[in-house]
Amino acid sequence: MSGEILASLQAVLITSVLLGAIATLVAGIIWAITKVLSRSEGKKK
Amino acid sequence: MNTIDLGQLFPAISSLFQIDPTIAIARIALILIGAILAWLGVKRITEPLILVPMGLGMIFVNTAQFFLPPYPPFPSMYGNPHLAPLVGSNVSNPVMAATEQVIASTLYWLQPIYALTFLNGAIACFVFIGIGAMTDLDFLMAKPFTSFFLAVFAELGTILTFPLAVAMGFSYNDAASIAIIGGADGPMVLFTSLKLSPKLFVPITVVAYLYLSILYLFQGKLSELTIPRKMRMVRMTPTDIRRVSPREKILFAIIAGGTLSLLFPVASPLIASFFIGNVIKEAQIERLKKFADEVFLNGATFFLGLMLGILVTPDVILDPKVVKLLILGITALVLSSIGGSIGGILMYYISRGKVNALLGPAGVSCVPTTAKIAQKEAQKLDKRNYIIYHAMGPNVAGVITTAIISAIYMTIVPLM
User: Fold this and answer.
1) Among B16, B154, B199, B259, whose Cα sits 20 to 30 Å from the Cα of B379?
2) pTM, whole model, 2 decimals?
3) Residues of chain B whose C-beta is under 8 A from some C-beta in A?
4) How far apart are CA B402 and CA B156, in angstroms?
5) Alpha carbon of B275: minimum distance to chain A alpha carbons (Å)
6) Among B80-94, B205-219, B352-366, whose mean pLDDT is lowest?
């Protein structure tokens, strides 16, 4: 049983790191889209 | 002419005294619980869209089942002879033995809906298309890093409940499905548990929806207990939020949806459904939007509630695991709410007091309930404080982080 709990703790550690990384990636996608679009709109003006 | 036996004329009533008392009591209890759930929904004390059909389903399936004795071909399904043909049925093999047909008759009309929309998780995707078509990405896109920071903290219950459930004796698959309750997203719980835990998907999803319908009763109190008063008083105005163009939102939906589907193909049906609904909304395709957020969402929600209610039969509540499920379900939601508060407090300090800490618990992804709770709590202290627009950012980010975490579990757990 303790082996299973240890494995589950390892899994949640991996999950937490992945969650943080992917959430940052998605936020970064938004940031990049905003930057690119505002730059292209600035050029048009 | 033979005399008519009153017992045969009213088999449901007479069989009540013939079947196993435990099953009879469980069925009566389920009828009463169903009536209470439906009544609470009708009175708007809890969420009516799911709980009214669910309660009615529980009442009618358990009254109808009374007249059928436990059937010999299904000894293991003693408490639930109807469910065997329903669960076991598939569209490629519609031919059932005559006895099975008799047993299935009371539920037969719903069998196609079950086979075509439940077994493959499609019903959750339908709900997600509707949610996507209703969700405004403006607030998330205006402050993406703050929104995702808060939403990640509000997944604390989804993270910690997994080892807790394993420690309480659940398998990895079941534990991961239970943990998703902490994400406070009903369709996500259904989708994940259908994939990882098909034998327990009924109690897990029902417990999730029960708690989600009463979330507003305790989340506000928890925020008051965990967030200091001065942090709940920070005034935020809607004018602080920049306008986001539909072009930005459509691009985001396509790129983020594509990236997440590429990373987690197992969860791509849900991710794609959400972003498809969103693109329909932002592209202003009115007829499709109306179809997605009215016809599709309402229809799917109705059948989701009704079918879940019908699947709650005596064998479900007599399973000792249900008590543990009830404990873990509420633990997951409370932990997520506390995690949200921690995130909110940290963001208050990071922003040097400009962000109201109540935005943290709004990262628990029950759209838009938790954002509304944050607004209500803020207005308890300051009537002119409108934080709901800001709270929608972490709220919508919470839907995406719950999808991510559910995708990670669906990918990692089978490898364990």
Assistant:
1) B154
2) 0.84
3) 140-141, 144-145, 147-148, 151-152, 155, 159-160, 162-163, 166-167, 172, 175, 244-245, 247-248, 251-252, 255-256, 259-260, 263, 397, 400-401, 404-405, 408-409, 412-413, 416
4) 11
5) 13
6) B80-94
